[in-house]
Fold this protein.
Amino acid sequence: MKDNTVEISEINALLGNKPRKAYIRSFGCQLNVSDGEKIKGLLKKMGYGFTEDEHEADLIILNTCAVRESAEDRVFGIVGSMKKLKELRPSLIIGIAGCMTAQSHIADKIKKSYPQVDLVLGTSAISALPRLLLEAVKGAKFSADISEYDDFSEVAEQVRDSSYKASVPIMFGCNNFCTYCIVPYVRGRERSRRPEDIIEEVRQLAAQGYKEIMLLGQNVNSYGNDLDGKCSFPQLLRELNKIEGDFWIRFMSSHPKDASKELIDAIFDCEKVAKHLHLPVQSGSSDVLHRMNRRYTIDKYLGIVDMIRSRDPDFSLTTDIIVGFPDETDEEFRATLDVIKNVKYDNIYSFIYSKRTGTKAAEMPDGTSDEEKGQRMRELLEVQRQVSTEHYKRFIGRTMRVLADGTSKKKKGWLTGKSSEFIIVEFEGDSSLIGQFVDVEITDAMNWAVTGHIKKGTI
């Protein structure tokens, strides 16, 4: 971890005791959200409080996502609108961080076209923030650092957005190079954190009363491949499971090519590991999977599902699906629908393919119209709606352990939460239960959630 004590002290000396606020907005995946929490931890050391209103902020940092070009366009639109804020308050400091800025051409574009931006830092340069901010406070017109440092993962202080759910990155980067994905180019190669550091972080979180700990990585299943056999992901799960405390362990994202029997055994053997697996299939066609460079066939994928369902026929699975990958035929799309019907996912996260400059898929010919892709998406969502409507009925009559995490938007006096199976559960209850585990007897099922009542005698 980079020592930035000198820069932090100098910033505090320059700014004095004057109250100052930062507005931090993170876009995209949970890894980005975790990075945003680390940024907040550094800023707290520099005397900043936080605000949800950009108009009252002394510092604005947009922590960006680069998965889709539309996400970049959205950020540029927001940055453009901040020109007026800068004109009204010249002392306002504006920074851009995250995956977008890890691309050198984007950093150059920001410098040339958005003079209201004071600083830019890449995904692995978070520890450079105090230095860049110090330069901005001293009057520098533009400062940037998009270098690839060792990841700023062992930050001493982190401002977490929740008091009962915490994300813990266990690795950074990706070696898979799926042809549609920009992540390996903006987050670099896979680097695993030391298992002892992860174990200690989770132990501290458990001692602080956190109820759900999400292990994060672009491909958590490949954790430890760069540790010379010191610790694999299934071994890490078993070690974390030994930590005292009443909490769940979740993880994402998993890659099917690395979903081993050892991993499945660990999920079933470890009582703290949630009984749910997010296993992105992306397509039901092996030909499409080959064009995607996913490095598994649909038969191998279904073999993993069979291995899981042989242990528990009702085990909860969710997935990601891309509709309309370049030159996807109707037959290939129908194969995806067959997989949905066969596997019976509890939920799917589906996307119409979006061309991403800099990836191999962006250079592939694509004769499928946007209209046809839209029709396929509507059909896919309807098939999944039918599957989940029927599949969710299996929970009726069961008692599910639920982590309450908010109030229902539709029913006054009701709460919402998720079960170990990652199923949305709604039930009547007081808001004082938010952040706690409750046992809920399930009485009804819909296509997106189940409902019930708190089991008598459990509170």
Remarks:
- The mean pLDDT is 92.
- The longest strand covers residues 399-407.
- The longest helix spans residues 370-391.
- The CA atoms of residues 219 and 253 lie 5 Å apart.
